[in-house]
Write a structure and sequence with these properties.
This protein is 60% helix and 7% strand. It has 827 residues and is of the alpha+beta class. Among the domains are: 145 residues, subunit c (vma5p) of the yeast v-atpase, domain 2 (Up-down Bundle), CATH 1.20.1460; 118 residues, Alpha-Beta Plaits (2-Layer Sandwich), CATH 3.30.70.2750. The strands form 4 sheets. Strands 1, 2, 9, 10 and 11 form a 5-stranded antiparallel sheet that branches. Helix 17 packs parallel to helix 23.
Amino acid sequence: MVKQAFFRSADMSLVQLYIATEVGREVVAALGELGSVQFRDLNADVNSFQRTFVKEIRRLDNVERQLRFFSAQIEKVGIKVKSIPGYANVTAAPHATEIDQLSLRTDDLEERVNQLLESSERLLKKQVELFELRHVLVEAGAFFDRAHNVPEELRASLDNDDAPLLNNDVEQGDTSNGTAFSVMNIGFVAGVIPREKLGTFERILWRSLRGNLFLNSTEIEENIKDPKTNEAVEKNVFVVFAHGAGILNKIRKIAESLDADLYSVDEDANLRRDQIREVNNSINDVDEVVNTTQSTLYSELQSIAENIASWMVVVKKEKAIYAALNLFNYDQSRKSLIAEGWCSTDELPIIKETLADVTERAGLQVPSILNELQTTKTPPTFYRTNKFTESFQNIIDAYGVSQYREVNPGLPAIITFPFMFAIMFGDLGHGAIMFLAGLTMVLYEKRLLQVNRDEIFDMAFTGRYIILLMGAFSMYTGVIYNDIFSKSMTIFTPGWEWPYTWNEGDLIAANSTGVYPFGIDPTWHGADNSLIFNNSYKMKLSIVMGFVHMLYSLFFSLVNYRFYKSKIDIWGNFVPGFLFLVSIFGYLSFIIVFKWCVDWYAIGKPAPGLLNTLINMFLSPGNVEELLFDGQPTLQVALVLLAVACVPWLLLLKPLYLRWENNRAKKAGYENLSQQEVTRLSLDADESGAVGVQEMHEEHEFEFGDVMIHQVIHTIEFCLNCVSHTASYLRLWALSLAHAQLSSVLWNMTFERAFKMEGGLGVIMSFVLFGAWFLLTIAVLVIMEGTSAMLHSLRLHWVEAMSKHFIGDGVAFQPFYFKTVLEEPAQ
């Protein structure tokens, strides 16, 4: 039976596997489905390109490239790929024959798709050329038809090279004398140019030819698609007239440099009409061939889309198998593969059973052997999680992975994280919105797992249980604060009573009639000193919660020390640290609660100021101006002396004890403490590194100075952090107060204004301002303020709480698991 590993990481074992070469791939595939072994690299000194299964991985890389190519083409034409939900239909690793068949099939498909794409691109290019030529023939022909008759008075000027080439009179001329441009020694260049470059084309021609040209252009109404990019481009037909072959060549080069397509146009109208008919017939033929080619390509891609998801899974699994096999050693004498890896100790029977099943299915006489190795290497840290605890464990592991067998900070964070958040975010209304959002994602999680989620929503969906608990705890603290969208709730009878009558301008005071049963009395919401009361209440509450949270976390260090059987850490670190924390901040929390419990008005005494009490506790011990209780001066002097005594205790006890223990061991004829540990490590050295014991002794010999420096740093950090971390918990008060005030301001600036309007305008503005208030509430108070409070709660766990016990130098357990491989994004 597999044991749970929530409070501490699971017991890990280093195992060695002897696998017959014939079933090496099948064994790795079975272990990949199981996901229980983290393989060690036994070929660390071998280059990646010199390992055994490089050829297989390269072949699979090529298949994966082909599949990515198919996916791009499928997405380009808009075909929906048939998905595999949760990879449920592809549970077993592929057979070697399947991979060979898939490789041959993808090669054949790639060749066919490339041929169809190239043919389609050529045909589309030809189609665009014919389409543009038809427009050039039509538009340029219309210009020729209007301008082929030139007046006699212009003929002399046309023969003069110094005169302007053409003017608008040519286009507007209407005579019966037809004169061809070729007779007048005028040539022309016709073509199609992108509309955005037409202005540039005109300016370059005008400056290059010094105005000795005539340019006519017409817009093409339809957008022409680029065959390569498949993007629509706006184009114009142009005709440029000029003298001389050299100038015409210059015009052609300028046009081609601006991505213009040039076409030959006949000046004779009859020949143009014949050319247009030929172009129209060619367009019809090309359209028919294009449609057939694209239909064939679409059918081919559609058949690929039916299987491409499963093919991608097969290739990813196969690549992972060979990558794992490259970590193994090959024993030529025994014709077997040797592997080493970490696994959970309680899963050893399952792994052995899996190896036996693979061997039995293969029909081999030689079974795969699993040996458990004795080692002093530090195992990886492995916590078993489920869909509820996984998100909490992830936010803790983001700061650092726990040391092997160390107390898991992620377990208490399930409660403390949303509760610290709720102290800063306490509002019944806002908490209800967050709770419903989390509940919706939890109830419909199976359906949401099947949809494509963007990065932001995926983060929220992954932390859906965190959002659910944060909303629930915020509703609880909202009831305590008596806040629902910044308004109060009168659930029970108030404990204060206002006067029934008063005159305008009178200063009135409420009379106490009892105690409100739960939370803050709603009467405080209408009082002038409400802010002062809430400030004092929430500030003191933050100090108390901070002390409880730090003390709770400090006790985890005691649990760790007891587990590691380190008595010197208990008496040299935990006990003085505990006494130091309790003597100062424990006492502060005590007097805060004590002050709350006393009815100062009933006994006729003013309530003492706690800040001055704490300051005078150190500046003038034994001198208390305002007593809270009898014996307070004596108790404060004793606590100060205890706190001062804890500093040298914390500083000196552990280093002096370790030096005494080391000297005692030397006198008894043993090696020093560090040498004994190094000797044990050297007895289990890696195969690749035979390091001498004497050399290791010299490098790790006990040094009192190093231990002392480490303890000095620990002492300074602990004592200063007790002060700074306690002050850091005041963010609970600050964020809570800011959230309540911002909520109140938003209500007053939006929805409340509608209540001051009368008539139909008031009704209309009620709907408008309610919508504005609700949208701003969601965007600002729930999302933005919620994110801020969540980050502050995260900091309180990472820094203030975990520093009291967390070592965090562990290495995460990363087993060879197909589920993890399939979830990784494609490269």
